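dude i think i finally got it to work??
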Amino acid sequence: MPTSRREFLTTSLAALVSAAFARPDLARVLPRPGQEPAFTPIRRGVGYFTLRGGTIGYLVNDDGVVVVDTQFPDSAEAFLKGLATRTGGRPVDVLLNTHHHGDHTGGNSAFRGVARRVVAHEKAAEHLRHPPGGAPAPEEQLLPDTTFAESWSADVGDERITARYYGRAHTSGDAVITFERANVVHMGDLMFHRRHPVVDRAAGATIRNWMTVLERTVHDHASDTVYIFGHANTGVPVVGGRAELEHFRDYFEALLTFVEAQVRAGRSRDEILALPGPLPGFEAYGPFGPPNPRGALTCAYEEVVEGLA
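look at this
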């Protein structure tokens, strides 16, 4: 049977992902997810889907189906259409949300009548019901029916899935989702690969504890664990290993050190937030961009000033 262009691209990307872990130099040439639906397998039935919004993780085995995050309504529909060809139309046993942001949960409604259970950290569920900052809750949202404070786990076929909460970071409700036997972890927005992250202080975010969360995640997983990232910069992959998590942690440390030096030099808030960047030593992340309340530079400034007070 001839191979379709989409099948060829997906298979080729999977091969490149595998090669990148064997040869780190190849990671630089992995393509950025485009605007076409793409299912990329990793191992033992676990893979990731890219289209628009935060990366969707999935597990398909002989006995069950698990999905992590849902992007937006249109991309969730595209995902479910492609998923059905891999599952024979079986229902989703568990849908997990890594946190509450709309580019990760906006497609939840597409899973109504499809997902048997929706799982999230208790703070993420609270934020979905009552969005921080006074924004209205999405209409017809499919909300979690199962929440946890520290951890949750379940067996789905021959795979064990565990969700852990390590504390405040990107928000106050981020979960790390581990496919234990596959040794694959979905990080949600705890990982922005080589790009400046969103830091949602209105939802309880803290850069300093985010560093600790990354350290604890690396500590609790094997040296050869494959991590799926929530987002990646242009031209870099949305998967990687512990080195990428450690690099992101070092970025935060450098950012706080840089901002503290600016504050001690007497620069004002407006002067610091107007700095174009890039951050010295982390040029691949690009310019800081215009000041915004959830930008990394803004939040670093606020945390530094609070720490010096």
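The first strand starts at residue 38 and ends at 43.
im so relieved honestly
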